[in-house]
Write a structure and sequence with these properties.
Layout lengths: L1 E6 L5 E7 L10 H14 L59 H17 L3 E4 L9 H10 L6 E5 L4 H7 L5 E5 L5 H5 L3 E5 H18 L1
Parallel strand pairs: 1-3, 3-6, 4-5, 4-6
Antiparallel strand pairs: 1-2
Helix pairs in contact: 2-6, 3-4
Length: 214
């Protein structure tokens, strides 16, 4: 069993929560994590670059002058790539860089990312987080108290508007629903922070993924 520390909003440790590493895939699979990160990076590429080839630029296709007898270098039409205003020799065209992974692999990659963070002692749980109104200052103070102010993913159970609005403008801090977590998001930040309810929900999600594998 793996142990995850529980802190209050003042940064004081108040207990531990346990999770079975078998729910997270057991042994760490670095190749799966690499594949997931490459996929998320590839899917962020726009691929909208475009330049014109010699067949797409404006201009006549007539040979500029005869091949021989002028004393000058031979020359084709005005759209040749070696002339100013001509087309590109190897024109760039729009491309789709998207990659896909099966749903079960994406879920396992998410679980493996959490396992990697737990093994690196970069996961913690916040106990009794209550925000009645959006306030950035107390939320930032709480992140500083738990040493998560240099970058973290803060997972809540469902969409909590007060939490989201309190932390959305803090640099390197992402507020997300625990059901929407993905491997790249987890690995790209220094720490992963759950609320108690979110951690309980994550264990349910990890357990359902394990049952589906069996």
């Amino acid at each position: 069993m793996l142990s995850v520390p529980v802190y209050n909003t003042a940064g004081e440790k108040v207990g531990d929560e346990s999770i079975d590493e078998a729910l997270l895939g057991g042994e760490l699979n670095a190749a799966l994590l690499k594949q997931a990160v490459v996929m998320y990076h590839a899917n962020q590429r726009q691929g909208t670059v475009k330049t014109k080839a010699r067949g797409e630029v404006h201009g006549s296709g007539r040979k500029l002058y005869r091949q021989k007898g002028t004393g000058r270098a031979r020359m084709g039409n005005a759209r040749t790539p070696i002339r100013r205003g001509g087309g590109h020799a190897f024109a760039k065209v729009p491309r789709d860089f998207r990659q896909t992974m099966p749903l079960k692999m994406r879920r396992m990659a998410r679980n493996q990312a959490v396992l990697a963070k737990i093994q690196g002692e970069a996961v913690l749980i916040i106990d009794e987080l209550k925000i009645d109104a959006p306030k950035t200052k107390p939320f930032a103070a709480m992140l500083s108290a738990i040493d998560a102010n240099r970058g973290c993913v803060f997972a809540t159970n469902g969409i909590d508007n007060n939490v989201h609005k309190s932390g959305r403008n803090i640099p390197r801090t992402e507020i997300t629903d625990v059901a929407a977590l993905n491997a790249y998001q987890i690995l790209s930040r220094r720490k992963l922070v759950f609320t108690r309810e979110a951690f309980a929900r994550f264990k349910e999600l990890a357990g359902s993924a394990g049952a589906a594998r069996e």
